[in-house]
């Protein structure tokens, strides 16, 4: 019996070792030369255990066998309990993101997009099989990020591929090579977006991914035209005062953006224009532009007008101002002539959200949460701070045009007022509220819809014209738009509302805001010494002191 | 409780009345300090000029440097830990003092918890080293308190789990060297498996020529094997925790791991009574 036990034990070791060695050579888990010796080894191992137990039971006393059996069973039961509890915890798909900015929480827009998905999207993640730290971080962070996305939808088909092994899959999506740190392909049918992790960020950029997802999901790319010819902010200008960031941001969200210079001889807004933007004009609307714009709005067109304060466009003798009266006439929105001011912060306006309705002596309607109208689609749920450097009052006209509905979107805190004497502010930087001035809180952005008779196809429904008018442009210029997430959210929500894509109205993820740490070479040397030799010497010194003390007292 | 405390106190003092404790702390300080210095200085240089290092923007410190550093501190415990735990019970047996200990009016649980708490005391001393490094970081840039707190909790949980395994192995072995070598070997295998697990494909299709039932069985066995390789290593559950992202299963893993090995240690100590 003893020799059988020995032979089975040796056979188990030899079989399992042979299986592992053949696996290392063959690199095929299911090859016959791997499976057969491995299974034979396992079988021999089971036989050996059985024989050992039999031997114990035979040779040891009955009581000792029972105790041993009791210990084994108790241990196995305890292990089973542990595994079961762990499995329950694993199934419990919750997590708490306790970081300050909730950077691992998905943003509302991402969740919204995922939950609205009704068709399958393929997400192919190509990562080179290498030990490079950046690749490893990119792969592991991407995997965790996609795991969180999959918790919100069943329509994501995620695959991780090695571009060298799965070359055909790579070529199948029209790529010949991938970025060193990894490439993600988001694909639906023939529409696809490619994200390269070449920025080597430590985590998958959620903003980029969500934008790509929106692009792939959307069946159309709404066309946004920026009207030119009025010395407005240029969407090609990459300087601080330019608006290239606005263009790039809109394109990233799936809009087609173009400049529109109307032909003065036959001005006409293109048929494919979903939104026409007038961004910071320094001259008035050309007289020939008024008619096509009116026609465009009559056909249910959408306009976004942003205009800086105190600019009353230069008007030739005998001519009348055109843009502001046109807005007042079409949508009942008045762009005031003054600028918004307060004693505390002068022209700088910090707009904040408040969890309780914002009421004032003048307006107790309570439809505002802080500075944002929580009853309007654009600003509902808006919970971020915006900063306007200069703004002009933008308020409803006393007479509401027929078939028009208007809403204030943003208003200042009550300590601001609409200062009419701009020249005083320019000269002294100070002002006091006079009887002519507009009492705070002052409205500085408005939205309006105007019913038209234009039918949408055969649906029997009519298409409303829509307008958003904002009394400032600085907030959407490159310098601020690139840095302040809330401004991006506000513009993108506005665009989504204008294009009737309300499902895209939500808060976008904030960008990373890490700061530079500047160390002098002396500081570097000090840190290196302190963290290694310094600490080590403290330990050694403590040891020596202990030894000496013990020696003294023993 | 008083007996537990007495055992714990005696054991903890014995670490630091011999060179063992200081060697352990010194080695840990040196290794963690080297990694800390390298990663912190490189991170600072990256923040000053990200594009030189291939970054578009400054990577976040918590993700790039702090969390990996804290996880590494936990991983170091896997290799330094055997030095702490190898003597806990095996030394008693080797010196012949185990019988003496068992004849004292002490319950098994008082002996085990006392010795385990002493090892946790040493772990606390090791964490002071980590805290010292964090103070250095904190003097140059603010650290997210939650990341800091959960980073330290992660190191503690990893250490506590690993020390419980070391205690169990120490209860099996007859001398310290065997206990230390076994604990170190298991830690190394666990660490290597963890590294391998990252590269294991999610599925490996069995040959089509196999019967359907066999294919399913093979795939299921592979899936279980992969899950074990991916989930079993102690450091596999640390990264999210160290970033301030709390998954219940990560905490459950460490607590259950610790409980299981403490339970096994109880059984081992108990077995001496009926095996004698």
The largest sheet of chain A, given as strand count, sense and whether it forms a barrel, is:
7 strands, mixed
Largest interface, C-beta closer than 8 angstroms, per-chain residues:
A-B, 63 and 72 residues
How are strands sequenced across the largest beta sheet of chain A? 7-6-8-9-20-19-17
Q: What coarse outline of chain A follows from CA principal-axis ratios?
A: elongated
Q: What ranges of chain A have pLDDT less than 50 throughout 5 or more consecutive residues?
A: none
**CATH class type of the largest domain in chain A:** Alpha Beta
DSSP helix count of chain A? Answer: 14
Number of strands of chain B: 1
Mean pLDDT of chain A: 82
Number of helices of chain B: 11
- What is the percent of helical residues of chain B? over 70%
Question: What's the helix-strand series of chain B?
Answer: HHHHHHHHHHEH
Helical content of chain A (DSSP H or I, runs of 4+): 25-40%
Span from first to last CA of chain B? 28 Å
Radius of gyration of chain B: 22 Å
Tell me what portion of residues of chain B adopts beta-strand conformation: under 5%
- Class by SSE composition of chain B: mainly alpha
Task: Enumerate the spans of chain B where pLDDT stays under 50 for 5 or more consecutive residues.
Answer: none
SSE-based structural type of chain A: alpha/beta
* Residue share in β-strands of chain A: 15-25%
Task: Write a structural description.
The complex is a heterodimer of chains A (554) and B (276). Chain A is an alpha/beta fold and 554 residues long. Chain A has helices spanning 2-26, 32-59, 62-91, 108-116, 133-150, 167-172, 206-217, 244-252, 287-298, 323-331, 422-428, 478-481, 485-498, 521-553; strands at residues 96-97, 121-126, 156-161, 183-188, 191-196, 223-227, 256-260, 273-279, 302-306, 333-335, 339-341, 349-351, 368-369, 372-373, 386-388, 394-396, 404-411, 417-419, 443-450, 465-470. Chain A has 4 domains: 2-91, no CATH class; 108-216, Glutaredoxin; 221-504, 3-Layer(aba) Sandwich (Rossmann fold); 518-554. Chain A has 14 helices and 20 strands. In chain A, the strands form 6 sheets. In chain A, strands 7-6-8-9-20-19-17 form a 7-stranded mixed sheet. Chain A has a 4-stranded mixed sheet with strand order 3-2-4-5, covered by helices on one side. Chain B is mainly α and 276 residues long. Chain B starts with a helix and ends with a helix. Chain B has one domain (2-275). Classes of the chains: A alpha/beta (554), B mainly alpha (276). At the A-B interface, helix 3, strand 1, helix 5 and helix 14 of A face helix 2, helix 3, helix 6, helix 7 and strand 1 of B.
């Amino acid at each position: 019996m003893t020799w059988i036990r020995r032979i089975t034990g040796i056979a188990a070791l030899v079989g399992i070792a042979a299986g592992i060695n053949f696996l290392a050579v063959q690199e095929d888990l299911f090859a016959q030369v791997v499976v057969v010796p491995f299974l034979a080894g396992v079988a021999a191992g089971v036989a050996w255990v059985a024989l050992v137990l039999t031997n114990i039971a035979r040779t040891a006393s009955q009581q000792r066998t029972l105790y041993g059996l009791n210990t084994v069973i108790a241990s196995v039961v305890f292990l089973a309990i542990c595994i079961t509890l762990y499995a329950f915890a694993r199934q419990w798909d919750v997590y708490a993101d306790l970081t300050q900015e909730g950077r691992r929480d998905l943003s509302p827009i991402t969740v919204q997009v995922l939950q609205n998905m009704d068709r399958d999207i393929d997400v192919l993640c190509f990562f080179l099989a290498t030990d490079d730290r950046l690749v490893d971080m990119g792969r592991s962070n991407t995997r965790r990020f996609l795991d969180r996305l999959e918790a919100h939808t069943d329509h994501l088909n995620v695959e991780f591929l090695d571009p060298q092994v799965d070359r055909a899959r790579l070529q199948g999506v029209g790529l010949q090579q991938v970025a060193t740190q990894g490439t993600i392909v988001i694909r639906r049918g023939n529409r696809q977006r490619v994200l390269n992790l070449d920025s080597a960020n430590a985590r998958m950029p959620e903003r980029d991914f969500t934008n790509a997802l929106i692009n792939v999901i959307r069946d159309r790319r709404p066309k946004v035209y920026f009207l030119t010819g009025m010395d407005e902010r240029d969407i090609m200008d990459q300087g601080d005062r330019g608006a290239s960031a606005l263009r790039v941001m809109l394109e990233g969200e799936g809009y087609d953006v173009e400049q529109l210079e109307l032909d003065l001889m036959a001005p006409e807004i293109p048929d494919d224009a979903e939104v026409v933007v007038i961004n910071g004009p320094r001259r008035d609307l050309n007289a020939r532009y008024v008619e096509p714009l009116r026609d465009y709005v009559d056909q249910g067109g959408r306009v976004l007008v942003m205009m800086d304060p105190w600019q009353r466009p230069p008007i030739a003798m005998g001519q009348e101002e055109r843009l502001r009266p046109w807005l007042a006439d079409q949508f009942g929105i008045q762009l005031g002539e003054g600028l918004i001011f307060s004693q505390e912060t002068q022209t700088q306006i910090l707009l904040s959200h408040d969890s309780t309705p914002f009421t004032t002596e003048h307006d107790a309607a309570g439809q505002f949460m802080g500075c944002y109208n929580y009853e309007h689609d654009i600003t509902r749920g808006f919970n971020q701070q915006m900063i306007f450097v200069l703004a002009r009052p933008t308020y409803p006209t006393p007479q509401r045009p027929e078939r028009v509905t208007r809403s204030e979107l943003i208003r200042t805190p009550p300590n601001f007022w609409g200062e009419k004497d701009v020249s005083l502010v320019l000269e002294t930087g100070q002002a006091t509220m006079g009887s002519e001035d507009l009492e705070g809180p002052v409205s500085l952005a408005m939205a309006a819809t105007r019913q038209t008779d234009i039918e949408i196809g055969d649906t029997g429904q009519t298409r409303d014209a829509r307008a958003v008018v904002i009394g400032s442009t600085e907030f959407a210029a490159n310098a601020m738009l690139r840095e302040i997430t809330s401004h991006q959210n506000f513009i993108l929500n506005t665009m989504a509302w204008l294009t009737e894509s309300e499902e895209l109205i939500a808060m976008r993820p904030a960008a990373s805001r890490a700061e530079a740490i500047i160390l002098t070479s002396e500081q570097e040397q000090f840190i290196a010494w302190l963290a290694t030799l310094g600490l080590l010497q403290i330990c050694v010194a403590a040891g020596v002191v202990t030894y000496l003390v013990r020696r003294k007292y023993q | 409780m008083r007996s537990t405390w007495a055992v714990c106190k005696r054991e903890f003092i014995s670490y630091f009345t011999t060179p063992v404790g200081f060697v352990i702390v010194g080695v840990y300080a040196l290794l963690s300090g080297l990694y800390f210095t390298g990663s912190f200085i490189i991170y600072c240089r990256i923040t000053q000029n990200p594009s030189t290092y291939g970054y578009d923007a400054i990577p976040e410190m918590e993700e790039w440097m702090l969390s990996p550093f804290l996880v590494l501190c936990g991983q170091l415990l896997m290799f330094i830990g055997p030095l702490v735990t190898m003597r806990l019970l095996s030394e008693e047996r080797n010196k012949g003092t185990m019988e003496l200990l068992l004849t004292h009016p002490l319950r098994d649980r008082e002996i085990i918890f006392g010795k385990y708490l002493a090892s946790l005391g040493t772990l606390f001393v090791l964490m002071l080293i980590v805290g010292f490094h964090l103070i250095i970081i904190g003097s140059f840039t603010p650290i997210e308190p939650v990341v800091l707190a959960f980073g330290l909790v992660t190191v503690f949980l990893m250490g506590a789990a690993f020390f419980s395994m070391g205690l169990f192995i120490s209860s099996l072995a007859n001398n310290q060297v065997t206990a230390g070598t076994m604990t170190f070997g298991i830690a190394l295998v666990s660490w290597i498996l963890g590294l391998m697990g990252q590269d294991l494909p999610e599925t490996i299709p069995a040959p089509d020529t196999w019967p359907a039932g066999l294919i399913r069985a093979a795939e299921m066995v592979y899936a279980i094997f992969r899950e074990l390789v991916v989930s079993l290593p102690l450091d596999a559950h640390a990264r999210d925790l160290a970033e301030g992202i709390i998954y219940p299963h990560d905490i459950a893993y460490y607590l259950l791991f610790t409980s299981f090995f403490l339970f096994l240690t109880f059984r081992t100590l108990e077995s001496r009574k009926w095996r004698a």
